[in-house]
Fold this protein.
Amino acid sequence: MTLSDAKPAPPTDSADPAARRRWLVLAVIALAQVMVVLDATVVNIALPSAQIDLGFSNDQRQWLITGYALSFGSLLLIGGRIADLFGRRVVFLFGVVGFAIASAVGGAAGSFGVLVTARVGQGVFAALLAPAALSLLTTTFTDPKERGKAFGIFGALAGSGGAIGLLLGGALTEYLDWRWCMFVNLVFAGVAFFGGITLLSPSTTTERPKLDLVGVVTATAGMFALVYGLANAETESWDAPGTWGFLIAGGVLLVAFVWWQTRSAHPLLPLRILADRTRGGSFLALFLLSAGMFVIFLFLTFYLQLNLRFGPVQTGLAFLPMIGMLMLGATVSTTALLPKVGPRPLVVVGMLLAAAGTGLLALLDEVSTYAPDVLPGLLIAGLGIGLTIATGMTGIVGVEPEDSGVASAAINAMQQLGGSVGTALFSSVAAGAVTAALMAGTSPAGAAVAGYSAAFAWTATLFAASAVVCGLVLRSGVPAELDTSGSTVHG
């Protein structure tokens, strides 16, 4: 056979335009995810300034956080299924545009009503955007080795988004105006939309399964009632009818949702997604991690500002070492460790490190300072959170392509619910410790520190218990979808 008879070699991966652009796709997806995650905290530091400007009460102020959590958390599952049904690219771009419009309305708000409506709108579009973003990631990166790197980067950014939000919110509030905590999303959204239009391939979905309307109603109402009840526990009490009534209703609706999913011809959340021990254990790890992670952000922010007298920008900068360790743990775990040892040891070690770091924060007192007392706990906890969150994110791998949107939504739902549960539960713990300290004659400043310490101590206990529970649920060995050596073994 002559050279002229030879058939051209098939195009290599490097010759494929989509393959060359996939890391840019990751950048676009990660940017959109960071926008969604940081918006849960970027407003926190801006709240006092917004309250003075618009003249709303302390009771109303809570709704600017709760409104976002309610709409985001309750609509995640339907958002994920919409991405599966109508195309991830279209839903991603629609979510980006809607989030930008809601942010612009919030930034220009002249009253509390407009601002809280904008926050609810942000949550609605975030519920479309977040699942589409994560499912695009898993369908873009199919090679196990590159997928590990991609999930490591994505997990690091998703995990550090809350701390980034504190830093960004502090800088914008101190140097510009609280409204820029909303307007800044227009920059993120503009870049994400342009990148999405340019880089993401149009959907090839041809089948349009029927939407599970009963599942939509029970899941959405159940998630709403659960998040509302938890949020109400923060402002009222655990024995208030508005707390336990909604919690019971949410529990009943979610049980009904699970029951219906076993009988529906087109389930909103196919239970096969959760049946795999590795995947189910990953979702559980993210739920438990989020329950403690947002507690660290919340109460350490109070401690830095009220006890150490840090300004908004200085408070954000104080979290940078934690972000660095989180990113280190996330990237090392998914690129070097996960393909070799599997998720179980990484989640267990990560949870134990998070417990140790948070335990150090529980030792803070009125005379503690940043470098010797706060920083060590931040570094250790950050490393543990990074190991766990990036590993948990990989729980989506192995699902069928048509289920990737709803599986991504389940991951986001676990994080959102975990954050709501942890914030409500440990805020109640902190309030009880403050009351007990004041009754014992402790100064107001000392009582406040007692509250933070109690919250950190219980969070550390949660992380330690989570290490045991997740270690029992997760299987040993490397899942086939993550194995790059071809020698996968499950225990």
Summary: The two ends are 51 Å apart (CA to CA). The chain has 18 helices and no strands. Residues 404-439 form the longest helix (36 residues). Residues 20-201+268-473 form a domain with the Growth Hormone; Chain: A; fold (CATH 1.20.1250.20).
